[in-house]
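Lab notebook, bench 4. The sequencing result for the construct came back, and we need a structural model before the next group meeting so we can plan mutations. Quick request posted to the team channel:

Model the 3D structure of this chain.
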Amino acid sequence: MALYDRIGTSYAGSRATDPRIAAAIHAALGDARSVLNVGAGAGAYEPADRDVLAVEPSAVMIAQRPAGSARVIEAPAEAIPLPDDSVDAAMTVFSDHHWTDRRRGLRELRRVARGRVVLVNSDPTLVARFWMTRDYVPGFVDLIPPAYRAPGFWAGELEELLGATRLVPLPVPHDCADGFYQAYWRRPEAYLRPEIRDNISMFRLVDQVAVRAGIDRLAADLRSGAWRERHRALMTLAELDLGVRVVVSDP
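Done. Here's the predicted structure in token form:
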């Protein structure tokens, strides 16, 4: 909550709902009619054709929810103020890595959902797949506890806490409307803009001297043409698998 109270003031400016990602999430929800969105932020990816209740701990983020959004409860993922089996499905999108007690939060999702839990986040074992991490800000790797970088650990923990689990690749479109960390993989100039980085939590969590140095190297590589020479093949792709996954878990 404290993080997004600090950095979330302009969040909605660059974190719009991408329709292709929304379609994948809504498909993963299956036939659930009532859905709880945990760590709901400004309301991206909440399906308009279902009965949605949102849970969000940050008043700053709640204030950015547009008119007509689902009803929201100000509460953390670790203590959802609902009875057991309250909704058909629970979802959380790019949120669980910020929870104070991630395991407890995931148990809460399973507790309140009668059926499916849908989670969207990046597979921590694939963190170095993205050129930004690999070439410019390797300190991002250190944000991930070593156990989670071990093959199979993340998926195994999800299955332990949520039930039978499928990990479905979610390629990132080259013109993704939602400006999360990997969204600008084919638009590197975007990372030079402070207002873009300000809405990506990872840039706030890493040592700022290292971030500035990495951004300066990226700016130099863009000026010289070195970035485009190195990543020429990316410029022909419409989407790219950078490790983002839709986790679909049934009890």
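The chain has one domain: 2-250.
Will bring this to the meeting.
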